[in-house]
Design a protein that fits this description.
By secondary structure, the chain is mainly alpha-helical. It contains 25 helices and five strands. It has a three-stranded antiparallel sheet. The protein has a two-stranded antiparallel ribbon with strand order 1-2.
């Protein structure tokens, strides 16, 4: 149940390459050493068999308890996802307003449905959209937009199904938020080798306020997060399957144990790797939703190469880096960069097949386009490249002050949340029953206790990675770093806390891993387990309570002004 379930196998894998050669030399002088572990187990530690103790305590017979235990691998994650879905879809159309940056993306999404590119909306279009009767004040004149189209196409699916209304433009984001909880449960199970800890990671994500608010608001950042998590899951499956191929090719000794083999480690071709291609596709789609997905493409490409090096070393390669350079690097490049770029270009199809998009005919309709370099390239590609360079210059120079901008140093402690919506109805209006008046707010604030505990969890995974050489901790740290560290390069740019939603699933995985350590390592006594269970249980219950306490601020419910002030724990939250 703990995060140290696979620790012994991980340590054996990490030390095998360093100590194996010395042990072979010492055996010439009579050194016996410890019993040799099966190399197959070092390559792919098995998932522990699901326990039946809980179901037996609840009074079920051995057969029924066994069936429920076997189903828990999918049943537990599905139940957590159902819980997350109910939270996210309940009263999804409220507030029935265009809130915060919904002034951009839902309208662009509707324009994509109508024209294939982003048209122009009238200044009072927001009020007209939620008026009765509704008016859609859209014209086909192109407008300048600064984000790729995929995220808006996904929002458009909900508008196509349910109409141009708050529920319709938030539907797909809520669905992706729910599915991301399911994926984190399954990813945590595979990564930590524990169904319970996997479900805990997903449950923590379900009750994080930032993820919750972003799942109920039609912005692009949660869509980026969805594709990043999907890519990470695909890479984990590819890692296990690739190492299983290496394990299957190893020679087996008379004792039935597989031994590392230089020929297998150095020369084995790993063949078709569809899960790595799927990861490249997902990474391309994350960048096609918002450009910060490119950082994940780069980080995960390095991560998969390092995993290949470690796998070949464990399988017995004398020169694992050289073997990866020869046999794995080019396929990895194709799977990530080439496939990702192809996916990115494919999302521009609407702009390519129409003639009304911004800069669509730049290469042929402007003097600088006709006289520009690269005339041997297709006109559409030169026009798109010009568009992208203009967008890059816009983002690089974006420094307009905003009341809710924040420095990334403050993100992990939730220093400056973003208010998406605020009203102060009087008694008798909009559901307000307090004589002092009420406040209605949608505040993009992560569940504070979850994020504050996440700071310690981040330190824990860094410790596990740097000092215990735990690859699982390194993978989680990579997911946080790729979504967090790049923003420190743009501290003069106008940036916001809600960008952190992209790496919040990895914060939840880190918390689940730390919780496993609190529960105790394998072999702990009953007293240690009991104390650990109490500590872990108190932490989780406090996080859930914290989410419930701030729930009115996440959903725009009317609460008395005094109750709203009580929830403003810091001046920077106002």
């Amino acid at each position: 149940m703990t995060s140290d379930t696979a620790t012994d196998a991980d340590r054996a894998e990490e030390s095998a390459g360093q100590s194996g050669r010395w042990q072979r030399r010492l055996r010439r002088f009579g050194y016996a050493g410890a019993p040799e572990a099966d190399a197959r187990e070092r390559l792919v530690p098995a998932l522990p068999e699901p326990g039946t103790r809980l179901w037996s305590v609840l009074g079920l017979g051995p057969a029924a308890a066994g069936r429920l235990a076997r189903w828990s691998g999918w049943g537990g994650p599905l139940l957590v996802a159902l819980f997350a879905g109910v939270l996210r879809f309940w009263n999804l159309g409220s507030p029935a307003k265009v809130i915060f940056d919904e002034t951009y993306y839902p309208k662009d999404a509707w324009s994509l449905l109508q024209y294939g590119y982003e048209g122009t909306w009238a200044k009072d279009a927001n009020e007209a959209l939620v008026a009765h009767p509704q008016q859609i004040l859209l014209s086909p004149e192109h407008s300048y937009v600064v984000h790729p189209p995929l995220g808006k196409w996904m929002i458009a699916l909900g508008e196509w199904a349910f109409g141009m209304n708050p529920f319709g433009w938030r539907f797909m984001v809520a669905l992706l938020g729910t599915l991301s909880v399911l994926m984190v449960c399954r990813i945590g199970r595979r990564l930590l080798r524990s169904t319970a800890l996997g479900c805990l990671a997903g449950a923590l994500l379900a009750v994080d306020g930032l993820h919750f608010v972003m799942s109920r608001t039609a912005l692009l950042d949660l869509i980026v997060m969805f594709w990043v998590v999907a890519a990470f899951g695909c890479l984990l499956v590819d890692r296990d399957r690739t190492r299983a191929r290496l394990a299957a090719a190893l020679p087996v000794g008379p004792d039935g144990l597989a031994r590392p083999d230089e020929k297998v480690g150095d020369r084995l071709r790993l063949g078709w790797r569809p899960w790595r291609l799927a990861a490249g596709l997902c990474l391309g789609l994350s960048a096609a939703s918002k450009w910060n997905g490119l950082y994940y493409l780069a980080a995960f490409a390095v991560l998969m190469v390092l995993w290949d090096v470690a796998g070949r070393r464990t399988a017995g390669a004398r020169h694992p880096v050289r073997a990866v350079l020869r046999r794995d690097l080019l396929p990895a490049f194709v799977s990530t960069v080439v496939v990702g770029m192809a996916a990115y270009l494919a999302t521009w199809t609407g702009w390519l097949v129409t003639k009304g998009g911004y800069y669509r005919d730049w290469a042929t309709a402007t003097p600088e386009g006709r006289a520009g370099s690269g005339s041997w390239l297709p006109d559409w590609l030169r026009s798109l490249w010009h568009y992208e360079t203009e967008v890059y210059d816009f983002h690089k120079g974006l420094s307009t002050p905003h009341a809710y901008q924040s420095n990334p140093w403050s993100w992990m402690v939730q220093g400056r949340p973003v208010s998406y919506f605020y009203e102060d109805p009087k008694m008798g209006h909009d559901g307000c029953t307090a004589a002092e008046g009420c406040a209605r707010e949608v505040l993009a604030l992560g569940t504070p206790l979850l994020w504050w505990a996440g700071c310690f969890a981040l330190l824990y995974v860094l410790y596990r990675w740097l000092f215990k050489r735990d690859w699982r901790a390194g993978a989680i740290a990579c997911g946080i770093a790729a979504g967090y560290l790049p923003w420190f390069l743009y501290q003069d740019r106008t940036i916001f806390l809600f960008y952190a939603v992209v790496f919040v699933p990895f914060v939840c995985l880190a918390l689940a891993m730390m919780t496993g350590a609190i529960l105790g390592p394998p072999g702990s006594g009953e007293r240690r387990r009991a104390v650990g269970a109490v500590g872990a249980g108190v932490l989780v219950l406090l996080i859930v309570w914290n989410f419930i306490y701030f729930y009115p601020l996440y959903t725009g419910q009317p609460i008395p002004k005094s109750a709203w002030h009580n929830r403003m724990w810091f001046d920077t939250w106002v």
